[in-house]
Amino acid sequence: MSAIHVIEHPLVQHKLTLMRDERTGPKEFRELLEEISMLITYEVTRDFPVETVEVRTPLTTTTGKALVGKKVAVVPILRAGLGMVGGVLQLIPAAKVGHIGIYRDPETLRPVEYYCKVPTDIAERDVLICDPMLATGGSVVEAVRYVKNRGGRSIRVMALIAAPEGLRALQEHHPDVDVYLAAVDERLDSHGYILPGLGDAGDRLYGTR
Ligand SMILES: O=P(O)(O)OC[C@H]1O[C@H](OP(=O)(O)OP(=O)(O)O)[C@H](O)[C@@H]1O
Ligand SMILES: O=c1cc[nH]c(=O)[nH]1
Ligand SMILES: [Mg+2]
């Protein structure tokens, strides 16, 4: 069974509250999502292996820790996941970036795929799939399936808010995929929106509606 990591850090929770606030406009919303994504990246990478290396300081020689050959691919689910990429890349600048275009049909709530491109060496990389909202879970279940079909084996999901329904769906279809996020909310409303949630993340990021 996959693990669900809820990041309770005060900075993450404070910024999430600002993002939920209906008065927060696109500029601040984008900045906050990038900042929270950076903080979640800190947790996602906590178990990355390090090795002891020798380093010369201006005064002497000592030892330090360095990451061992970790190769990462960041894969946002368009559109809203794009808002998380900058935060991840600030901490993992050498990561390659894939894109998965999926929108949720407003009537059926089923995911519709319209564009996918991921690094060719994705099988050798730790894959971080990013999408701020995990509602029914349909979109993220499809995105993980796509990455697995392309050879991806080590996959983690980074999100902002999930509904319990979405987490159950992800665990059922992909029990090997851990999730890192800022909050698990109460439930979905009759239109498949997360309650209390923050509304439509893509629209709030880009000022569409
Ligand atoms: O868990 P699900 O029920 O699949 O819903 C979540 C999906 O819905 C939103 O995308 P949306 O369809 O609004 O596309 P957008 O990001 O382009 O606005 C969100 O960013 C997720 O991708
Ligand atoms: O609450 C929700 C559900 C799906 N997509 C969003 O952006 N928000
Ligand atoms: Mg949207």
TrEMBL record:
Catalytic activity entry: UMP + diphosphate = 5-phospho-alpha-D-ribose 1-diphosphate + uracil
Pathway connected to this protein: Pyrimidine metabolism; UMP biosynthesis via salvage pathway; UMP from uracil: step 1/1
InterPro entries, per database record: PRTase-like, PRTase_dom, Upp_B, UPRT, UPRTase/APRTase
Leader sequence segment: none
Gene3D superfamilies in UniProt: 3.40.50.2020
Annotated control of activity: Allosterically activated by GTP.
Plastid as UniProt keyword: no
Cofactor note: Binds 1 Mg(2+) ion per subunit. The magnesium is bound as Mg-PRPP.
GO MF annotation, one: uracil phosphoribosyltransferase activity
Broad EC category: transferase
Keywords for the protein's UniProt record, in alphabetical order: Allosteric enzyme, Glycosyltransferase, GTP-binding, Magnesium, Nucleotide-binding, Transferase
Chain residues that bind uracil: I194, G199, D200, A201
Cofactor: Mg(2+)
Residues at which 5-phospho-alpha-D-ribose 1-diphosphate binds: R79, R104, D131, P132, M133, L134, A135, T136, G137, G138, S139, D200
Family stated for the protein in its record: Belongs to the UPRTase family.
Protein's job: Catalyzes the conversion of uracil and 5-phospho-alpha-D-ribose 1-diphosphate (PRPP) to UMP and diphosphate.
PANTHER family per record: ADENINE PHOSPHORIBOSYLTRANSFERASE (PTHR32315), URACIL PHOSPHORIBOSYLTRANSFERASE, CHLOROPLASTIC (PTHR32315:SF4)
Protein name, per record: Uracil phosphoribosyltransferase
Organism: Carboxydichorda subterranea
Organism lineage: Bacteria, Bacillati, Bacillota, Limnochordia, Limnochordales
Gene encoding the protein: upp
